[in-house]
């Protein structure tokens, strides 16, 4: 869920730059690599190891973007939480990152993956002035320079959303260029804890938005083992059915703690009208974690561990 919505002045002096962004981030150019650190509260200044939640100190600009995106998404979000309790209305700058993610979770309620992606597209378009996509196409045709420029500005402007990142060299159509962005540990994936939200609320709609609306191909490849992600401007994304992310199971630990109980409550002959599992038993749904009838039977009558069974058969989302 990435699109440029505003500009800030950046001055670079002797391979160093300072950008006013909350808690004084640092833009570093080391060995030809551009990276930025903004709002990280960890002693090391880097994201916490996998399994530990990274601490951030968000400043004015970070919260401004969180508020902007959250309020735009609120019009599409469910008006009550999953437990039925009404959602407390928030004012300007009452949003933090957790409440921003909470709005995302309420957006996916009652929507399939295509509908979720459409919501993100509408939110992104609502943030742009009329005719912006056409102007973008004129300013940034899919050239090497345009790809490298967009990779460079992605690093400082979207630290609030995905965490620290850096520009890296990638190969596009046999040509090496610096149009890649490596997100060290995606803040959105880390805080949502949901592979489905990563794919349907960020990866796919962002790829489609840049590729279809802006005419600049973009491929995002999340690594669900370490929560990193690689963005490659200039590289056309694969069809959804051929994308490895479409077959990625949910996080086993999250299912174990939050969703496993649902497994034992589903009748073996449960009727799930919206369930259309594919051959790989990986399909994105909205609002619930579905299990196939065979998976329920197997889990009840075999010695397969809860963790393995959940990871294999959960057709997620949170």
UniProtKB/TrEMBL annotation:
Domain Beta-carotene isomerase D27-like C-terminal: 160-241
InterPro entries: D27-like, D27-like_C
Superkingdom of the organism of origin: Eukaryota
Name of the protein described by the UniProt record: Beta-carotene isomerase D27, chloroplastic-like isoform X2
